[in-house]
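Regression check, NAP case 372:
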Amino acid sequence: MKNIALITGVTGQDGSYLSEFLLEKGYDVHGIIRRSSVDYRERIAHLEGTPNFHLHYADMSDSMSLVKLVGKVQPTEIYNLAAQSHVQVSFDAPEFTADVDAVGVLRLLEAVRTNHLEKTCKIYQASTSELYGKVEEVPQNENTPFHPYSPYAVAKLYGFWIVKEYREAYNMYCCSGILFNHESERRGETFVTRKITLAAARIAQGKQDCLYLGNMDSLRDWGYAKDYVECMWLILQQEKPEDFVIATGVQHSVREFTQLAFHHAGIELKFEGKDMDEKGICVSVINPANEHLIGKTLVAVSEDFYRPTDVVNLWGDPTKAKAKLGWNPQTTSFEQLVEIMVEHDMAKVAAEDVASRVRTNLAEYLEKGIVK
Ligand code: NAP
Ligand code: GDD
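Current build output:
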C-alpha cells in the first residue's frame, strides 16, 4: 500500500523538515495551507513543484474543510503540526489559540472518523513540554504530572487528552510526541533562539545596536528540529500507539544561549547586574572593525518580553525514546545547534545587505537613466 501522509502546519518549521524527510522515504506528501495575503511560503518554496508534494487549502478552525480533505487524500498517516505555537502570543489571542490548538485536534480526529479511516490512518499529535509548565519534577518524563502555565499549554493539554481518549474509546492509532523545544535556521524569528542568532549576526555586521530580551534565567532543553521530525515518524511506526517524550536530556539558560551565539558571531560578552538591570557587555571582538563595540551594552532586559506566567525549568528525560524508538537524542549537540543557526544568520544578514545595496543602486541608476 502506498504511504500517504497529510501534514497540517506544513509551512512551519517542523512541517518543512518533516515534508523533506517523508518525501525522501517515498511518501506522497499532502500539506494544508491557509489563505494568506502573501503567497510566498519561504520554508517549503523549494519543495513546491515536486511530483509527490501536494498543497491544499484548509484550516484547523473549519471542520468541513478538514472532513473534505481527509476524504479526498485518504491518508495513511496524519501529522497534526498546525498550531498557534507562540506562548506569549497565546496570552494576547487565547480564544484563537484554544480554537486551533485544542478544538482543532478534535476536528481532525472527527474528520478521520467521519471518513471511516479509523483502522487505516495513524495520527501523530504535536504535543509539547509546555504541558509540564510550572514543573512538578526535574527532569520531566512520560509520568511527570502536567501543570500547564499559559493559554497555549492549556489548549495543548486538551489536544493531548482528546488524542488519548480517541485511542482508548475508538481503538484508533493516535498518539502524542511530547516534544521539548527544538530550533533551527528555519525557526520563527520571534522565538528566543532565532531572535538571538539574528541579533548577534546583525550586531556583528553593524545593523543593530542592542538585543532586548525578557527572562534570561529561563532554562530549556533545546534540540535540533531536523533531528526531531524523525521521531514523529518513528512514533507512528511502532506496533502499539504510545506517547513519547522527545528531548536531548541537556539543559541551558537563555543567557548561555546568548553568550554562545555572540561568541560564534565573533563577540565575547560578559553579563553584569541582576533581573531588569542585567546587561551583556562586549569584552572583546574578533573582527578589528568591531573594536568600537568593546565596553558597550549589546544585550539588555525589557519588561515587554516577560510573560504573565513563565515556564522556567524545562529539562526532558528521553530514556523511553532511546530505548523504544532507538533514537539518538545527541545527534546534534547544543553547541552545534547554536553554531548552525549563527552561521546561517550571518550569511542571511550579509545577503540582505547585498540585496539592499542592489536595490539602492538600481533606484539610483533608474533615476539617472542609466538603466531603463
Ligand atoms: P510553527 O513554525 O509556528 O508552524 C505552525 C504551523 O501551523 C504553520 O504552518 C501555520 O501556518 C500552521 N497553522 C496555524 N494556525 C493554523 C490554522 N488555523 N489552520 C491551519 N494551519 C495553521 O511551529 P513549529 O515550531 O513548526 O511547531 C510545530 C508544532 O509542534 C506546533 O503544533 C507546535 O505547537 C508544536 N511544538 C513545537 C515545539 C518547538 O519547539 N518547535 C515544541 C513542542 C511542540 P501559517 O504558516 O499559515 O501560519
Ligand atoms: N520569545 C521570547 N523572546 N522568549 C524569551 C525572550 C524574548 O525576548 N526573552 C526570554 N525569553 C524566554 C521565555 O520567557 C521562555 O521562558 C524562553 O525564553 C523560551 O521562549 P520561546 O523561545 O518563545 O519558546 P517557548 O519555550 O515559550 O515555546 C516554544 O517551545 C515549546 C516547547 O516547550 C514554542 O515552540 C512552543 O510552541 C513549544 O510548545
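Comparison notes: The pocket of NAP (ligand 1) is lined by residues 8-15, 32, 34, 36, 59-61, 81-85, 100, 126, 128, 179, 181-182, 188 (CB under 6 Å). The chain is about 40% helix and 15% strand. No diff flagged against the previous build.
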